[in-house]
Write a structure and sequence with these properties.
The chain has a single domain, classed as Peptide Deformylase (Alpha-Beta Complex), CATH 3.90.45.10. 22% of the residues lie in helices and 35% in strands. With 162 residues, it is of the alpha+beta class. The protein has three helices and eight strands; from the N terminus they run H-E-E-E-E-E-E-E-H-E-H. It is globular, with a radius of gyration of 15 Å. Bound molecules: nickel (II) ion (NI). The site of nickel (II) ion (NI) has 6 residues, from helix 2.
Amino acid sequence: MAIRKIRQLGDECLTKVCKEVKLISPRTKMLVQDMFDTMYESGGVGLAAPQVGILKCIVVIDVDDNPYVLINPVILETSGEQTGYEGCLSYVGKSGVVTRPNYVKVKAMNLEGKEYVLEGEELLARCICHECDHLEGIMYVQKVEGEIVNNEDLYGNEEENE
Ligand code: NI
């Protein structure tokens, strides 16, 4: 188990467009494991490789005890709309309102290099969009509606980050 340092807003890694993964190497597998460890340790539900300083198209997500690895994800379809608070492990302790699709269909590769399709609604859809944005160098703060607030004011002591 290895916890990697999560880059924070202002770090240039969070502004770059990530590169496609061409080969799933043992290093890639280690990175993905570290990303899960880092995400769980931080109490998040999603993490993108640039957040740990690796500019590759890799995302891990676990919103409901179903862990997903998305390598080179491509959003195929979206529908509906949801407006609500989201946060980010790269902007600790803050949340802001973002409108996202309520349904997302994404294709990606898993760690075995097999392509698969993942469909998600509500939080999973929000998370997929949020993490795919990271791969384009986009933070939710660029899409936020209204003010960014402190999680303490929003949730009390309970925090949830993406
Ligand atoms: Ni994030």
